[in-house]
Amino acid sequence: MIDREHELPVKRQAELLQLSRSGLYYRPRPVPAAELAVMRRLDELHLEAPFAGSRMLRDLLRADGVAIGRGRVVRLMRRMGITALYRRPNTSRPAPGHRIYPYLLRGVAVDRPN
């Protein structure tokens, strides 16, 4: 897309393509091999225990001998797209438009079984 050898300046090329100039100069760094190994182990642990959050995964990695903090585990989980599977808040809220049924025993004296 952007040709640095073209006679048109990079700034003008970015304007024509409607791109941010700051993103054109960014060169992504390769991921170190040690971090890839931690990410691979993190993926294995997530497949074994998909309910594990960052704290539990940190403890499991530390049990394997990896010196790692929770913040780094959170960053790696975000980078890998891993989230813990657990019940989220407000799951008992009714769906919009759901009909609310009346309570049929209101005002009825229940004085015998069945």
What does this structure look like?
The protein has helices at residues 10-17, 21-24, 33-48, 54-63, 70-80. It is flat. It has a domain at 30-85. By secondary structure, it is mostly helical. The chain has five helices and no strands. It starts with 9 loop residues before the first helix and ends in a 34-residue tail after the last helix.
Short structural summary:
It is built from 5 helices and no strands. It is 43% helix and 0% strand. By secondary structure, it is mostly helical.
Q: Rg to the nearest angstrom?
A: 27 Å
Mean pLDDT: 90
Percent of residues in helices: 40-55%
Into which percentage range does the β-strand content fall?
A: under 5%
What's the total count of β strands?
A: 0
Order of helices and strands: HHHHH
**Poorly predicted runs:** none
Cα-to-Cα separation, first versus last residue: 77 Å
How would the global form be characterised? flat
Find the structural class using helix and strand composition. mainly alpha
By DSSP (H or I, 4+ residues per run), the number of helices equals 5
The largest sheet, given as strand count, sense and whether it forms a barrel, is: none
